[in-house]
Prior knowledge:
By secondary structure, the chain is of the alpha+beta class. Helices cover about 15% and strands about 30% of the residues. Strands 2-3-1-4 form a 4-stranded antiparallel beta sheet. A 4-stranded antiparallel beta sheet has the order 8-9-7-12. The protein is elongated and about 105 Å long. The mean pLDDT is about 90.
Amino acid sequence: MDDLKLRESDDIQGDVLAGFKKDQMTLLFLKFEEPARARTWVKALEPQISTTRQVATFNAAFSMARKASAGGDPQTLKATWINVSFTYEGLRELTGKDPLPSVRPLSGLEAFKQGSDKRALGDTGDSAPGMWLFGNGNGNGKGQTVHAVLTVASDTVEDLQAAVRQQREACAAAKIVIVFQQDAATLPGNRRGKEHFGFKDGVSEPGVIGFDEPDPARPEYVKGHHGTRLIPPGEFVVGHDRVDSEPREMPDWAENGSFQVVRRLGQDVPGFWSQVAGQLKVLKQAKVVPPEATVEWLAARLVGRWRSGTPVATCPHADKPSNALAGEDNDFGYRNDPEGFLTPLFSHLRKTNPRDGLQERPGDAPFDENPVMDRRRIIRRGAPYGAPFDPAAEGGGPDEKRGLLFVCYQSDLVQQFEFIQKAWIDSPDFPPNRTEKPGPDGMVGAAGTLSYETPGKTTQLSLSQFVVTEGSVYCFVPSLRLLRLLGDGRLTDKPPTVVRPTDAFLPVPGMQRVGGRSWYWAYGTGSDGTSVCRTLSVAEGDEHSDARERPDRPLSTWPCYAGVTKVDAILPVPDEQQVNGRSRFWLFHSVEGRQVYRLISIADGAESGLPPEQAGRIDRPDRSLSAWTSLGGVQQVDAFLPVPDMQRMNGKSYYWVFHTLMGGQVYRLISIADGSAHQDVIERGDRGLDLWRSLHGITRVDEFLAVPDMQRINGLSLFWVFHQDKYRIIVIRDGHRHEDRISVDDRPLTVWTSLTS
């Protein structure tokens, strides 16, 4: 069993390779409202995630117990499994940055980043994204964004409902919105194991090298599953061996993860059977089918299997429902049926997996299954939803919402799922280069004309579309290791690089202490050496969790920064905050080695989407520092610290000004008067930093930031002090002496999620 090491994985989530295989399943489509709370939710969720080892061990025990009970489900063996996946937008929310800053065009990563609603998957008309129940909100405004998909599966309805209730409560506590809930379940009675059209589903699943035991006599196949080929695990799980050992271009964080497709596919059951009956008459009139051919006979050819799962290729005349092995029979091919006389070229089975019968053109030798077909395989999960079609039963009528919750896993969305969907299922010219185009997939494809081939004659069939897309998302199923990192807002366990946007902070007007968060623009140097601005928020509470709300933007984004190459300091004009919908700031920056300042104004709520020319503007152009009486002799202002209990007192506001003098940093006390002139005065001359107990060990302060909900609480005010690659928290007491002390010792700047790249 050493060769089956993947069965022992505690890092790969359980549904990918092992498969939950439960009768009851619910998918919760989630949207994060507060990234910090979402990360806390991820941390709490991670221990509940089912691993491959857990699921594989249970499934093996269940299978053995079932055999011992002559095929009945063992009543004492029950389990509830949970897995989670994230959309591209979800990963960005959790980490505060773009998880895929650059992707190769036409790649699977590009497809993941764009999302399935942006991809040309034949989803038009009734299947158009604008009609979807979920998955159409990623940037187009038609619906709510999906950040994560939580899969809960169980053996009983009661256990499933209890688990879902628990997860819904956890989401509510984390301010996570449940955009949509999709329930699915195995159909009852003799429909068990079948989809709503009535055919056995999930028969042709691939085996996985390193997970499934090979057949001793035919090691390329799974033991006990006739004809089920073993495929390299890297086709389904990132970072493992692939067909032909070709590596995929993937970020390091994707290792042991898988890309997931979730689609809600509505099925028109009465329409399917009605049209099959109508097209059978066409074939009989053309005298190209046996007189005894039935609707079931033609439906089996549209699917490629009979209802029981028996392949038409091995049993063309009638079903063998009593054959216990029929549903597992994959030991067949189409090499001896290149024209599709037995299994039509448009059949669902042949369209989605041509096996050994695919030719470049008629008469050519077929392609080898390995590697041509093997690299297109996907692992399918999912289950039916809705009541079975039964006009005599309550809830079984033709208008009942029913269909298939389709779930699949692969390592490349473009080369696997999308290739099958676009190049095979929906293409009327696949297989290619034939005189008469085969037409789209006769069961799940778009409406179109199908070519029914018989020796010496082609008969055209016309079928509508029976399967409609009602929702779709592309997700990434992270490894357990990555899931733990995501709980900390990270994609890697390597020390994150710091962009250091700590030159200055500007409190976003109108967004201070709103909904328990305060928003800021942080200015600093980006990874490419240019000056940037990013948006971050800080939550109220003991942890003061921070989040990166917007990616870095060059200062040239807004006209108010025109000509600014580096922001040195920003000071809010004390009596001109949120006046007539705007707030003013003095912005200090350097031009050709000489510091100047300008007066800018920002519209309140500027993060809500106003264009830059309206949100931020220059109210007065650059001037020399000499215009400030209180800054006489100052060469470079580094930071301002407002005196907490002396703001807008008797028409004046007081500040400690930290500035550079002869290579060292000193500070002075100044005051600024209210009024249009804003008369400023130096209240106390320069002193050394050693007079501040709270700044012990610091030679240069980069910036101060007031802790938003800890100002003048019981006479104390807290501030974050940023210096080089560290920060600390200090306390300043109200009163004449303004006693200060360190509240929290130096910590690495990387603790701030919002300040790391």
